[in-house]
Structure formats: structure tokens, C-alpha cells
Amino acid sequence: MSTIDEDRWPAIADVPDHARARRRARKVESEFALACEKAGLRLEGEDPDLRVFEEALFYRLADVGWLGLGESFMAGEWTSPRLAMVLERLLRAGYNPKTPVRTGVRYDGSVAPLELHRLSGGDSTNTYATLFSSGVPTMQRETLSQTARTKHTPPLSIEVTTLSDPTVVERDDLTEAQSRATQALLDVANVGTGAYVLDLPAQTPALTLAALARHATVDALASDPDVLASLEQVAQIADGALEVVPTLTPLPDPGAFRRRFDACVSVDSAESMDPRSLQHFFKVVEQALVPGGRLALQTLVAHEPSKSVAGCTELIRAYVTPAFHLHDRDDILHLMLKSQGMKATDVLHFGGHYVEGLRLERERFEGHEREAAALGFDAVYRRLWIYQLALKEALILAELADAIIIGASAHRARL
């Protein structure tokens, strides 16, 4: 605990010691042990699945549930050589400690430091998504069920492709798999020579660089200073094909662009948006695209609404992305329908590939912790990064979350 910067990590440095936490700690400890037993997790022996060093874990669990479990890991009060497996089994066992979940927080445009992407994926321009060369696609046509908000619109039929899990995955495959996922997103958006492309909001330069390589012209919008600086470096060698658009707000107003675009691409951002911000995003895209223009959106989604999902992801909201929200896939499609200017046409499910990429990224980061420390990421931050990667792995492995790419078309002219 003495190594924790109290100014930077006040909640981590301060173990809950109020009456309620003390009163409930023993009960919570028993519940945690029972959950571990139910999940088949070993707490003792020569090679335990997790090892608890400090009873402060149970004070934190008593105070803020899942958030406390993550904060305790950040504090170094417990550890695991198989972290993703531990979290997956706890989720599958139905472990659901009472966790206060903050709501009403709006999307603020914050992104993870690009250096963490480099240390995790080997290239600072890469994103989380991965598509490996193996895996068999299966396709079917689905009709989206109507809701009270969409009952006056025609039923939506979409082509759904599910990519089977990759058969062989090696460490050296990571960079190529990340590049393949980026190319797949551009394919969905029909990005080719001469296309005008909007990267909204840019998370890393990955999509912009890939679109430029296809001889497209790109407007990349971002509010994060590091992302903007990285994009400006690309613009210097793009020979006028890239316009970097700094914004004071996370998302622009609809109709704010000087020109309209053939395609809009977005990656790793929808899960960072609360429902209202995501609805605003679709309004912006609707107004930005030419009739027939394409949207390609890659995001994590929840398989179904779950209190445990909301609880366990509270750590991400607290320390990484304030408005993090795993939307249900059909909720996203209904939001598109509600805009009346966007029509989803196809969905690709590739969670088995995404989760393998997360595993490789986590393992690679664990092998570069010394470099991360030299760059100023302290032990608490490094454990945070490892935990959030493992948590996303666990959610997919426990079949509570999935990774998808949605393709959609703008089907009417802007008014």
C-alpha cells in the first residue's frame, strides 16, 4: 500500500473502514469463498488459481462489490496467474456482489493512451479488434423484432454472419490479425479509391492509415490531444488526403461538416457511449453521409441485459471510460431504425477472434511491464490495464458479451 500514490489513486490507497464495511466483511468473505468453490477455483495449495494477500479485499467487496474486487487487484491485495479464467468462472457461477453502478454519465471522448496500445499490440496505430486467418463463416437472414418505438416502420431483415473460433493462434499472428480486422471494417464500408471517409471518432490512427492506403480521402475527428497529435503526424505525409478535425465536444452537431462522405467508420467507440450519446452519433452519421453512403461500426455488445455485466464493468467506468456501456446488439439496430435515415444491412459476429486478440494483447503487455513503468505507468495503472483486458476476455468467454461489426446504409437524402 505504501507504493500507491494517494493523490492519483485515492480510492485505491484508502481501504474502506467504515462501520458497514466492517460489519459485512466476514459475510462477504464467506460468499466469495463459496462462489470460488462453486466456480471450481482453488485458493490454496502449490498452484492456486488466485491468491489473496490482504483481507482488505473483503472490505472493498463489502463496500462496492465488483468495483472493490477490481480495485483490490489494482492495489495488489490479490493476484492470479489465470486472471481471465478466474473472472470468467466467477461470472459463470453467477457471482454478483452488490455493486453501486453509476448511471447518467455522458460520453466524454476519452481514449486509452496510445502507448498502451503499442505495448499491448506491437503497433501504436492498432485497436483491440482481431480477425485471424482461420475460422468458418456461417450466414443466415434474421428479421429484427419490432418495439413500441419502431412498430410503424417496416420489419428489418439483416444478413448475420457468425465467424467460428480460430483454430490455431500464435503470438506472431497478433499484428496481422489486427490489420485484418481493420481491413474488414473498411470492406464493410465499401472504402476504395477516391472515397471520402469520415473516421468518427478516431481512437487511434489505424483506420485513417488503412483508408489512406486504399487511396481514400479522410476526415478524422477527435478530441483527445494524443490522438490528434498522432493524426497530425500522419497528415504531414498524406499529401492533402487527410484532414484532422479537432473538436471541443466528444461528438459534433449533426450537419456540422462542410462536405458529405461516402463512408463513415467507427471502432472501439460505441461501447464507450451511453445510449443518448450513441443515438446522437447516429444522427451525426445520418447527416454526414451521402444517400447510399455506408457506415461500418465495430463494437462490443452484451448478449442480453445483465446486472452482473453492469456491476463487473463498473471498474472500467470508474478508471478507463466513464460512460462505458455494453449495448444489446438489437438495441443498437433499433436506434438506427429510429433515426429513419440509417438502415442496417449486415452484422458480423466474431467474438471468438476478438477474445483471442485480447489474450495475446494482455500477455504481451505483461511481458512489457518494465517498459510501461519507464513510460510513467505506475504499478496500479499497469494492473488496471491488465485487469480490464482480462475482464473483457472473461465477458466474452462467459458468453455475456460478443464482438460485432455492423454495416448500414444511409437511405435518404439529408433534409
TrEMBL record:
Matching entries from SUPFAM superfamilies are given as: S-adenosyl-L-methionine-dependent methyltransferases
Q: Which GO terms describe its biological process?
A: methylation
Gene3D superfamilies cross-referenced by the UniProt entry: Vaccinia Virus protein VP39 (3.40.50.150)
The answer to whether UniProt assigns keyword Transport to this entry is no
Molecular function (Gene Ontology), one example: cyclopropane-fatty-acyl-phospholipid synthase activity
Q: Which InterPro entries match?
A: CFA/CMAS (IPR050723), SAM-dependent_MTases_sf (IPR029063)
Calcium is among the record's keywords: no
Q: Write the Enzyme Commission number(s) for this entry.
A: 2.1.1.79
| Keywords for the protein's UniProt record, in alphabetical order | Methyltransferase, Transferase
Pfam families registered for this protein in UniProt: CMAS (PF02353)
Top class in the EC scheme: transferase
What is the designated name of this protein?
Answer: Cyclopropane-fatty-acyl-phospholipid synthase
What organism is listed for this UniProt entry?
Answer: Corynebacterium gerontici
